[in-house]
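In response to reviewer comment 3 from the previous cycle, which asked for concrete evidence that the modeling workflow produces usable outputs, we include below a single protein chain processed end to end. The sequence was submitted unchanged, and the resulting C-alpha cells are shown without manual editing.
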Amino acid sequence: MIQVFSNQLADKHVLLSTMIKKVYIEYLLLKNDKESFHQVLTIIQPKLLIFATSIIKDSSLAQDAVQEAMISIIKGFNKLKNHRKFHAWIYQVTRNKCIDMIRKNHKYKNDSDINTIEEPSSITEDLDGKIDMMGMIKQLPHKQQTVIHLFYYDGFSIIEIAGILHKPAGTIKSLLFDAREKLKYLLGE
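The workflow returned the following C-alpha cells.
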C-alpha cells in the first residue's frame, strides 16, 4: 500500500514538473528572442531523443532523426501561429522524421511494419523489490507505449496526442484504456 502511494506521488510530481516545463517553454517562446529559443531547444532535445528512441529502437538512428527534427523545428518555428501548439508540433515533427528515417534505412519491408514496431522486454525488479514500471510499459505494443509515454510522462492531453499521432481521439482513448488494462494485468491487480 505504501509503495502504491509512493508511486502515485512520484507520478504526480512528474506530471507537475512536466507542466511547469511546458509553461516555462511557452514563456521563453513568448520572449521571441534567439537566446530564449536556444534555451527551448536545449530543454526539448533530450525529451525528443527519448521519444524518438521509443519509436526507432536504435539510438544512433534516433539521434539522426532528432537532429533532422531540430533543423525542421528551427526552420518552421516562424510559421507556427500559436505557441501553445508548440509541444504537440515538435513531437509531430519528430515522429514524422522517425518514420522517414525508418523508411530511408529500409529496416522494415513495408509501411504496415512501421505500425507494429515494438520491442518485447521482461518485467524486472530492482533491489528494493519495486516493480520496474518502464520494463512493464516496454511489454506493451508500440502504439500503447507511445500513448502512455505522451500522456503520463510528457503530459499531453488526449486531443494533443491525437494530433501528434494523426489518429482520432477515440482511438487514443481506446489505446490508453487497453494499455492501462494490460498494465493492471501485469501488476496482478
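Residues 3-9, 109-113, 116-131 have pLDDT under 50 and may be disordered. We consider this sufficient to address the reviewer's concern, and the full set will be provided in the supplementary archive.
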